[in-house]
Amino acid sequence: MGLIKIVILILSFTFLCQGQRLTATYSAARLPYAMDRTAAYYDGVDSIYLFGGRANSYEVRSISVYSISQDTIKMVGSISSTYLFESCVESATNGNLYYFGNVASSYSVTNNAMFDISRNTTEAIAALPFYPADCGALKLNHTSNIVYIFKDSPLRTFDLETMVLTEVATLTHYPTISTKIGNSAIFFSGVSGPALARVTKLNLDTMEMETRNTGLHTLSYARVASDLVRYVYIIGGYVPAADRPTQTIIQWDTQLHQHVYIPVDNYPFSYSEESWQYSPASVYVEKLNRIYYFGGRYRQRVGGGTMPLSAIWHVNLSDIDPPASTTIPTEYPSTTEEEPETEITTESAITTSTTVITTTTTPNPEIITCQNKTDGMYPHPYDCAMFIGCHNGELEIFTCPVPLLFDPVASTCMPPHLVDCNISCVGKPDGVYPHGQDCSLFITCVSEILEVYRCPPPLLFDPILLVCNYPEFVDCV
Ligand SMILES: *[C@@H]1O[C@H](CO)[C@@H](O)[C@H](O)[C@H]1NC(C)=O
Ligand SMILES: *[C@@H]1O[C@H](CO)[C@@H](O)[C@H](O)[C@H]1NC(C)=O
Ligand SMILES: *[C@@H]1O[C@H](CO)[C@@H](O)[C@H](O)[C@H]1NC(C)=O
Ligand SMILES: *[C@@H]1O[C@H](CO)[C@@H](O)[C@H](O)[C@H]1NC(C)=O
Ligand SMILES: *[C@@H]1O[C@H](CO)[C@@H](O)[C@H](O)[C@H]1NC(C)=O
C-alpha cells in the first residue's frame, strides 16, 4: 500500500470523524394522521405503503401510499377492523402485500391480511398463533414467497403460496428490530439486567447465527433501516444521557461491530432532553441513498406527555457515506477482522453456530497481539493500567497494582505522575490522536467514543501529520 494512498485514507477518515452529520429534510406531504407504529413497506420503485398505526386516541385503519418522486400521499385502502398496532408487511411475487398483525376486533385474535394492490381490496387470510406486534418481515430475495417473521422465538417463516407457517430456528435473543444486509437478517435484542442490546446476524441461506454485544443500551421501540451493504441505521429507542445524545441516528457498522451517534440537524423535536417514545417507521430508498421516516411519537421534556407526529422526512446518507471505493475497513485499518470465541450450539431442528463476544470495548482485538513481537512487555492498547506479556508468541495480559500505570519506556509499572498516559477521548473533539504509549497505534475519537487502530506494519503513527508514515519520518520514543 503506497504512502499516498494511506495518507488519503487517513485524511478521509479524519474528515469523516469530524464531518459526520445528517440533515432532516421534510416532505410537503404529511401523514393523514399524526401517528406512530405504522408499518411501512417499500416496493423498490417509487411507492412506500403505510399500514395502520396509532393516532392519539384511536387506531388508524387506513392503508396509504407515499410517492417518492411526486412527494404525495394518498389513502388506497383500509383494514376492516380495529386494534392495528405496529406490525410488519412483506410482498408476494405477484405484487400483493401481506400484513402480519392484529386485524381482528380483539387483542386475543391475531390474524394477517392480504392487500391486493390491483383491486384495492383487503382480506383477512390466516390466523397466526402469536401476536406479531413490532415484528419485522424479511424475504431472502424478491423471487421468494417465504417470509421470515422476526418477533420472538421460535423464528417462523410464512409461505405466501401455501399459507403454511413453519418454525425454522430457536432464537436465544428475541428480535426487537430487524433489517437485512445481503443474505443475512440483522436483528437487535435487549437483555435483562444492565440492559445492553445484542445484535444477531442470521444468514438466511445457511441459517448460521452469530450474536454479539453492541455496547448500546436496550433499544425500546426503536426503528431500523440498513443501506443493504454494511451499515444499519437505528432511530430512537433510548433515553438521552451524556453518552446517548438525542437528535441523532445511531449508525451500527456490521463489519467493524461498532456504533456512532450521528447528529441530525433540523430534527423533528427541539429540546435535547426529549426522546422518541415510538420511533418513526424507517425505509431505506437505495436509488437516492436516503432513509425516509414516517410519523412516530416523542416524549416531551416539559410535562412528560407524548406527541404523535405526521411528518414525513428523510436524511441523505451520501452526506456521511464514504464512497464504496475508499471504504475504510476493507483497506484500512488492516487489522480489523475478528476471530471471536465460537461456541457451537444446536438449536431447533437446525444446527446453528452462536458466537458470543464478551468484550464490547475492543472491536478490533487483533491489535492486542504478540504476533511479530519479540519476547517482552508491551503497553495495552486500551488501558494504561494494563500491559501485555509476550513469550514465544504467547500472550498474557497483566494489570499493574493500583494505582500504578505501565510505563513502556521503563517497561514496568510506575506511579501515575511519571507515566505519560492519555488513552482517552473524554473532552476531546472528534478526530485522530496519537496513542502515546505505542507508536504503531493511534486513537480515533467520535462523540467521545474511543477506538484504537494499528498502522499497517511497518508504518508508525506520525503525531505531527496525524497519518501513518514510514518509521524514518516518525519521531517516536
Ligand atoms: C382504494 O379504496 C379506498 C377505500 O378503501 C379509496 O379511498 C381509494 O381512493 C381507493 N384507491 C384507488 C387507487 O382506487
Ligand atoms: C430466493 O430465496 C429462495 C428461498 O426463499 C431460494 O430457494 C432461492 O434459491 C433464492 N433465489 C435466488 C436467486 O437467490
Ligand atoms: C445527497 O447528498 C450529496 C452530497 O452530500 C449530493 O451530491 C446528492 O445530490 C444528494 N442526493 C439527493 C438524492 O439529494
Ligand atoms: C506480522 O508480519 C507479517 C509480515 O510482515 C504481516 O503480514 C502481518 O500483518 C503482521 N501481523 C501483525 C499483527 O502485525
Ligand atoms: C490528553 O490530550 C488532550 C488533547 O490531546 C489534552 O488536552 C489533555 O490535557 C491530555 N490529558 C492528559 C492527562 O495528558
UniProtKB/TrEMBL annotation:
UniProt protein name: Putative chitinase 3
Translocase recorded as keyword: no
The keyword Signal is assigned to this record: yes
Residue ranges occupied by any Chitin-binding type-2 domain in the UniProt entry: 367-423, 425-477
Gene Ontology molecular-function annotations: chitin binding
Gene Ontology CC terms, in alphabetical order: extracellular region
Signal peptide feature range: 1-19
Keywords carried by this UniProt record: Chitin-binding, Disulfide bond, Glycoprotein, Repeat, Signal
SMART domains: ChtBD2 (SM00494)
